[in-house]
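Exam revision sheet. Question 4 asks you to relate a sequence to its structure. Input first:
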Amino acid sequence: MRRMSCHVTSYLIFLLLRSFTKAANPDSSLVSRRQVPYQTKELSHDDFNTFNSLSDVSHLKEAVKQILIPRVVGTNGHKQVRQYIVGSLRDLGWSVELHKFHDRVPILGQLEFQNIIASLNPEADRYLILSCHYDSKYMGELQFVGATDSAVPCAMLLNLAKVLKTHLAAFRNTSLSLMMIFFDGEEAFKEWLPEDSLYGSRRLARKWEAEGFLDKIDILMLLDLLGSPDPTFYNFFSNTETWYSHLLSLEDRLIKGGFSTYANSGISQLQPQRYFQAQTLRSSYLEDDHTPFLKRGVPILHIIPLPFPPFWHTIEDNESIIDFVTTENLARIVRLFTMQYLLGDITKKI
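Answer key, structure tokens:
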């Protein structure tokens, strides 16, 4: 993520884009490193309306409030946020483990990192993984709270677990289940370099590769820089093009149903009134917590806006810039995608 400037111009985006049609790549319905065929059906009208009607914006705002504090690795704020995330998920019946390790970082020295890994069914054979990072960037004496980066994505995942609690119960004993990862140490402490960034995701990907666990991941979806109005998203990877197109289709259904969207004249000329664009960004050099998994062959959906928010990595990335209408819109799409994906396995067995 930090290798691409937040000042990406529309001209550059046009140079790097190619349009695609839904399900254009026949191999993009394959999942996991093992290239397993897997297809889902559109949610029925009744299921779509049922899941779409589930919402708890008050809880979403409260979760943001609890996370929206400086949370640099090793600080009390970091510990407080970790305990809040872990406690919230355990209260909802999730199995939560902490992947702990130590590493030496610039400026602050030796630190303990803790990735948070939450599973509905720890014994499942396959997982759809939803992920984000929960640490905030070190900025010396400045109090950086990172609303979009990434308090809001963390809150969205906790909100999903709460809102869908009853419906997710069906996946506590299934072979395909849901996992959430809250990565630690995504941010660089001094300068974005291979050895000073992605501490938690690098270590976890390496661990899971050695253990053979990576083959259990169908898709890893990473959420980052979410919460501000007018985001536009693009597909980055040909092997998950079909799964990205499901996000477009779900947004289409929501738009037809009259859900609120934003349009900004600076970017809406691509596709007005849309978040998810029907284009693939041919250059995939945005480095983020998906990168160590991508390098090991794990299929990725990277949900990050381009261009980046204008306040990226500034103290202006605070509560004042959060647009909860947009945030809830995106949360709905992610929730619907999650249920549509998981229900595909159950439907096949009926």
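Marking note for examiners. Residues 45-313+324-347 form a domain with the Aminopeptidase fold (CATH 3.40.630.10).
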